[in-house]
Design goal:
Arc Repressor Mutant, subunit A, WH-like_DNA-bd_sf, seven-stranded mixed sheet, Methyltranfer_dom, SAM-dependent_MTases_sf, alpha/beta, Methyltransferase domain-containing protein, binds S-adenosylmethionine
Length: about 350
């Protein structure tokens, strides 16, 4: 078989199994197996999960032959299924949300396909399903990101303890902002979103946190003279989704309180070149997510820069410099960086 044929069929197989795995996660099959004290037959999985046995058995066939689920024979010769040691803890973490991506990409496939054609639509905005998956990821990552902010930004913890004004743009479902607001009751936090329904949902969800308020803002349309100034602005996985990141960064700069106002953001930080990242399947996954999610989201305007998640750490840093910031880039994970953006020192 040619190299291409081998690679294409291997990846197609994995994609098909990935969608099946997403389905198993969504209908609760992994959770039923994780909660069980001993292996279960397909009938037992179906009964506990409130599902149809024949569908469950077929899917368990897929998962067990792919070695995602263990399979053995009971004394009565019936097949029984279980998860390997340690799988339950993994499923309680970030992976559970990540398993939602194949189903998400499948559901958005035709809308994104239409966008490829010259006479097709420009954009497919994030759905509730996207925000739910991001919130699931944030459930396990928010405390770690909050910790990174506090460790990497000098004096931030002291300032937050004393009481400062903070805003998060593109807060999604607001978990990171809520985490920090609860940790620092003397500071005043705003969770901002461009999607009106999200702002309302966040109000309903986090109204019990007294030092957290909510606002509706389009980062690409910050007024020349902003209504309010902040000591610290942050965002997470937002800059690459914006149609005009430089205008947004300039808008944030106008909002920062002189002279020590600070912007920090977390973003994907690849090399920026498929040539350099060739063979790196993690980067390839980000390009896939870019194709189905980030590019369609950032085409809010036809003149969008449409960076995508893989424009590269240097490109992102240079946009922040172009907006007038002094920028420091700190690698926090293999493909993620913290961008610390300071106002230029006034002479
Ligand atoms: C990838 S999501 C990240 C959400 C959240 N920060 C997280 O880490 O889960 C990008 C967010 O940016 C928001 N966004 C997109 N365009 C925006 C704009 N023009 N102004 C402000 N926020 C925007 C989206 O609504 C979305 O919630």
């Amino acid at each position: 078989m040619s190299n291409f044929a081998e690679r294409a069929s291997e990846i197609t197989q994995r994609a098909l199994i990935g969608i099946a795995m997403s389905l198993a996660s969504e209908v609760g099959i992994f959770q039923v197996l994780a909660n069980a004290d001993s292996p279960l037959t397909s009938y037992q999985v179906a009964m506990v999960g409130g599902l149809k046995e024949r569908y469950v058995r077929e899917l368990l066939g897929c998962l067990s032959t792919a070695k995602l689920v263990q399979v053995s024979k009971a004394e009565d010769e019936e097949l029984q299924y279980s998860l390997e040691e340690g799988a339950k803890e993994v499923l309680d973490g970030r992976l559970a949300a990540f398993l939602g991506f194949p189903s998400l990409l499948a559901s958005t496939f035709h809308s994104v396909k239409d966008c490829f054609y010259k006479d097709g639509p420009m954009s497919v905005r994030y759905t509730d399903q996207v925000q739910d998956i991001l919130d699931g990821i944030s459930r396990s990552s928010a405390p770690g990101i909050a910790q990174i902010f506090l460790e990497q930004i000098s004096n931030l913890k002291t300032k937050l303890e004393e009481g400062i004004d903070v805003i998060e743009f593109g807060s999604g479902k607001g978990r990171l902002c809520a985490t920090l607001a609860q940790q620092f009751p003397n500071s005043r936090f705003v969770a901002s979103e461009v999607v009106p329904d999200l702002v309302q949902a966040n109000k309903d969800r986090w109204e019990h946190i007294p030092n957290l308020t909510f606002s509706l803002d389009d980062l690409c349309r910050v007024p020349e003279v902003p209504d309010k100034n902040y000591d610290w602005v942050f965002c997470c996985d937002v800059i690459h989704d914006l149609p005009d990141p430089v205008a947004a960064l300039q808008g944030i700069k106008r909002m920062l309180r002189q002279p020590n106002g600070l912007l920090t953001f977390v973003d994907i930080a690849t090399s920026g070149s498929p040539l350099v990242d060739r063979g790196n399947m993690n980067v390839s996954t980000f390009y896939a997510l870019g194709t189905f999610l980030c590019i369609p989201e950032s085409y809010q305007r036809s003149d969008s820069l449409a960076l995508g998640p893989c424009s590269g750490r240097q490109m992102i840093a240079s946009l922040a410099q172009r907006a007038g910031f002094q920028v420091e880039v700190i690698k926090i994970e293999d493909l993620t960086a913290l961008f610390i953006c300071q106002l230029p020192k006034q002479s």
